[in-house]
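Feature request disguised as a bug report, sorry. It would help if multi-protein outputs had a clear separator. Right now it looks like this:
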Amino acid sequence: MAVKTKKKKSIPKRAKTGIAAVPLENGFRACRDYFHFELDSKDISRICKEFIRKKYSKEDAQAILANPEYHFSAYDARAAAIFWMSMNFEFESPFEKYPEYIDSVYGDLLESGRKILEEKTETDRPVIRLTPQELLRRKVNDTIGRDIDDLEDRWINGESVGEIDLYTLFQKHDLKGAAVPYLQERIEFMRDGYRDAYDKTEECAVEAYENLSRKNLKSRLDICEQMIDDLDKIKSASKATRKTRKPKTRTADKQIGSLKFLKESNEYKLVSIDPLTVPGSLRLYTFNVKTRVLSEYVTTSVNGFEIKGTTIQNFDPDQSRSTKLRKPNDFLTHVLKKTPKQIDKEWSKLTTKTNPVNGRINDDTILLRVDQK
């Protein structure tokens, strides 16, 4: 009796995915489309970064890779071209210039990366402490930055996306106008790429987005423009609501710290008042014993006089005045004893010219009197 042998079951081969499944027989266009629809941003980034590390010196590669991550993860056509070159395949028309384009792109990133590294070196400290700017940058990247990442991922997957309301997102994440620059450069970079493709002003951009209809290009361009408009409104709103810092009032003792004046005059038998009474007063009389000039300072400021160095501040130039006294002893008696109205009446009787005041006090000046009216 014949013994039946069992047939071996054939195991179906696992379908290739990822880089292993890139179509090689239909030219670069098919390869590029595969990268666009089938590979995620992590694969795109890895291919670009491996190419940079192999092609450039260690120092140059470090500079290029110092640029923001979206330069390596967001451009599937660039990664497809790098893959195609690694296979030593030729580019069919109209893609012959892709190798030059790759060199040009990373050449630009080399310069910007060097600047980033220079700034990073200048701010390095033995103890790592994040600056307020860096903390803000991280907060932006962890909040709205992720929303932008999600937007680009959905675009890569061919999904239709409505507008993103950045104004509302800023309020949601409690971000102010200072956060705008951390997003503006990235969104403007996206917008410029779609604009170049839509207006057909940049051949590489046209080729990169060749799979998109003009309607889709216009839609993405409009979304980028709307986001930039939102950022402008956020900056304007931030300026409008910014609190004005109220000047800090200096105490009287600090104001008179540098004040020079004459404490006593034996010639005219005069003694200066306490200079601490001058700040905050509304009227001040001074007399220069060397020039015989009497000055009357009047202020309309609610804070009264202030003193800065050796100069009286806040006086009203129209109401303040000075004159040279021919007989100081006679008139100074009026100043020391009478009311401002009575002094004004006596002043009108003087035959000497009335002049404006300059506010300066020197070591020949007696501080005669202050008044609160």
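(second protein starts here, but nothing in the output says so)
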Amino acid sequence: MSLRTVLVITLALVFGGSAAVGVNLLRSQEAKADNTVPVVMAVSDLHLGSKVSAEQVKVVNYPKDVVPPGAVTRLEDATDRVPIQSVLKDEILVERKLAPKNSLGGLASIIPEGMRAFTIHTPHVASQLAGFITPGNKVDVLLTMQGIGPNDRTGGASTSTLLQNVKILAVDKNLDTPTVDPKGNNAPALQSVTLLVTPDQAAKLDLGQNRGTLHLSLRSPNDNDAAVTRPATLKDMEFYQERPWGEQAKDVINALGKLWEGRKKEEKEEEPARLAKVNRKRPPATPPQPMEIRTLRGRTNGLVLVEPIPAPEEDR
């Protein structure tokens, strides 16, 4: 075989292999493209109540298997809409976190249907929870009222839990969590807090704010259970001193021990009556009958009586 023929065959093999590799890469890219869908992603954090601009979002290809339900797929469906929940950078936009297309923005756009926003104006907010309370937190609302008239049973004043597990929509005019200096130099001086409530709760807050003083008690984000509370009055607190928890626990343990001892004593006292009742229900024992054994020897018949062995006393 000549050198020319060898070169031709070698080049043919190289070009054929390159073509095969190229075709495989093209097919893999096409297969990969078939497994993705376009979705809208946030380029930066989106603020509550502010309309989304075209510069804040982009379209990316995302694997079909991990696309969240309700994902927005077109830019025109995301722009000029208002986030009603926090949206972070590189997060996929979903319909449930956006207000309808024609929303005007601001606080009204993030209030669910059937709910109301009520603002508490009180200097006590700043003194109690300054720097710790932010939009999205859950709080209990406490109401303090002064006693009225000489027949007042509170002793002069009372504090009760008016509302529980209420969401904070805004702190002052901020709908988002403010950036706080780690050293605490720029902790905001809070003057008002806006709560998300029902119409009936809004009426209670209005009456409480006008006739008493409202306070906020911050809740854990994982605590959604209603607490069993009772009003605190000056009359109840007069000369009241809380005992240490260790002593309270001892009282509980001693009470449980006495309860257990009393129960065991009652069972011991009831045991004879229970046994007598069981014995009354037991039928009288019939005496065992002797057994007869007949024998036959030739023409002679015989009879043998076998007395049964009496049962032990405990089996009777």
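Even a blank line would do. Unrelated, but nice: DSSP finds five helices and ten strands in the chain.
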